[in-house]
Design a protein that fits this description.
Cofactor: Mn(2+)
Distance between the termini: 68 Å
Radius of gyration: 25 Å
Strand content: 5-15%
Strand order of the largest sheet: 2-3-4-5-6-7-8-9
Structural class: alpha/beta
Subunit structure: Homodimer.
GO biological process, one term: L-leucine biosynthetic process
Helix content: 40-55%
Number of strands: 12
EC number: 2.3.3.13
Function: Catalyzes the condensation of the acetyl group of acetyl-CoA with 3-methyl-2-oxobutanoate (2-ketoisovalerate) to form 3-carboxy-3-hydroxy-4-methylpentanoate (2-isopropylmalate).
Bound molecules: 3-methyl-2-oxobutanoic acid, zinc ion
Order of helices and strands: EEHEHEHEHHEHEHEHEHHEHEHEHHH
Oligomer: single chain
Shape: elongated
């Protein structure tokens, strides 16, 4: 049977924790509407207790965006949970996402609480959230540096208190694919209650392994992945939605999962988020970077002009682009040059092409990229005027 994996987008909550990003309510609403078009399963709209602005943003999104579940974050205390419930009360499908840290390092230095106190706070928080809504997510912050026995106890008791989703965050991007796979397997084996809830993962990218870790979790039974557009987030960011989704889609032979996502909205969503957050996307970023579907060398250009799959493992159209990009420069060959001449409407003789190509190569040694205007000028000088 093909398993369904849900995409939980936290661009508007963890993504907004990117240093330098602050979105107002209109910007958040615009992003949320685009996320609904992308067909994410869950939008984490914000952290309602954090500020009046965030409360209003969560409330506005809850009231106006239909389709995905709308989640609001709350620490494991009644004040946070009551505030989240107030912001979410008019949502079509509301979810409170409550969390508390479970690692010795966080419990000792940040919370100054014993494991027993953390367990009690987690159970009480889930019960309180459940008094508002059916759908409650519980996260054990810093799960990957926590004691596994303690995690088992925490998850078993929070599920019994009413949690419908159990989230296992790699808060500081510390784990590796093998280790994380093992953790998910162990928790599923040791906590029988995990069978009746969604198992979620939330990976940070400090060692550049957020997407790989999330995929390893999916192979081992995770049914929800938390991620952000363009991989935005605290420090090195979160698992990038576009990378996760396209890996799951492109390697369906391995992952064998179904998603709701409309992949054709990926590029547009990335653009909306980079414009509104002001965080530009690096050109070589997988899937949505300017070079992700660009070909610069003559050998590659010849390959894709003959058959795209020689150097493209997914189509640009599948993420909403209209075509790939052949970059003309000093590494380009005659094949790509002739193709561009045709696209620009020139029908030249062999001799004319030879002269134009020679001039193109001279110019390409002096310039990084040859534009269409450069080619028009070359044809004017070298061909028409002779
Ligand atoms: O990284 C993390 O642990 C979080 C939790 C609040 C889920 O963002
Ligand atoms: Zn996080």
């Amino acid at each position: 049977m093909v398993m369904k994996v849900e995409i939980f987008d936290t661009t508007l909550r963890d993504g907004e924790q990117t240093p330098g990003v602050a979105l107002n309510v209109y910007e958040k609403l615009e992003i949320a509407r685009q996320l609904a078009k992308l067909k994410v399963d869950v939008i984490e709209a914000g952290f309602p207790i954090a500020s009046n602005g965030d409360f209003n943003a969560v409330k506005t999104i809850a009231e106006n965006v239909k389709g995905p579940v709308i989640a609001g974050l709350a620490r494991a205390n009644f004040k946070d949970i009551d505030k989240a419930a107030e912001a979410l009360k008019n949502a079509e499908s509301p979810r409170i996402h409550t969390f508390i840290a479970s690692s010795p390092i966080h419990m000792q230095y940040k919370l100054k609480m014993s494991p027993e106190q953390v367990l009690e706070a987690a159970v009480e928080a889930v019960k309180r959230a459940k008094s508002y809504f059916e759908d409650v997510e519980f996260s054990a912050e810093d799960a990957t540096r926590s004691d596994v026995e303690f995690l088992c106890k925490l998850f078993s008791q929070t599920i019994r208190a009413g949690a419908t989703v159990i989230n296992i965050p790699d808060t500081v991007g510390y784990t590796t694919p093998e280790e994380f796979a093992n953790l998910i397997r162990t928790l599923r084996e040791r906590v029988p209650e995990m069978d009746r809830v969604k198992i979620s993962v939330h990976c940070h990218n400090d060692l550049g392994m957020a997407v790989a870790n999330s995929l390893a979790a999916v192979v081992n039974g995770a049914t929800q992945v938390e991620c952000t557009i363009n991989g935005l987030g605290e420090r090195a960011g979160n698992a990038a939605l576009e990378e996760l989704v396209m890996a799951l889609v492109t390697r369906k032979d391995i992952y064998k999962v179904d998603l709701n996502i409309d992949t054709k909205q990926i590029y547009r969503t990335s653009k909306v988020v980079s414009t509104l957050t002001g965080i530009y996307v690096q050109p070589n970023k997988a899937i949505v970077g300017a070079n992700a579907f660009a070909h610069a060398s003559g050998i590659h250009q010849h390959g894709v002009l003959s058959e795209k799959s020689t150097y493209e493992i997914m189509t640009p159209e599948s993420i909403g682009l209209t075509s790939n990009r052949i970059v003309l420069g000093k590494l380009s060959g005659r094949h790509a040059f002739v193709q561009r001449l045709k696209e620009l409407g020139y029908e030249l003789s062999e001799d004319e092409i030879n002269r134009a190509f020679e001039r193109f190569k001279d110019l390409a040694d002096k310039k990084k990229e040859i534009t269409d205007s450069d080619i028009e000028a070359i044809v004017e000088e070298q061909v028409t005027k002779i």
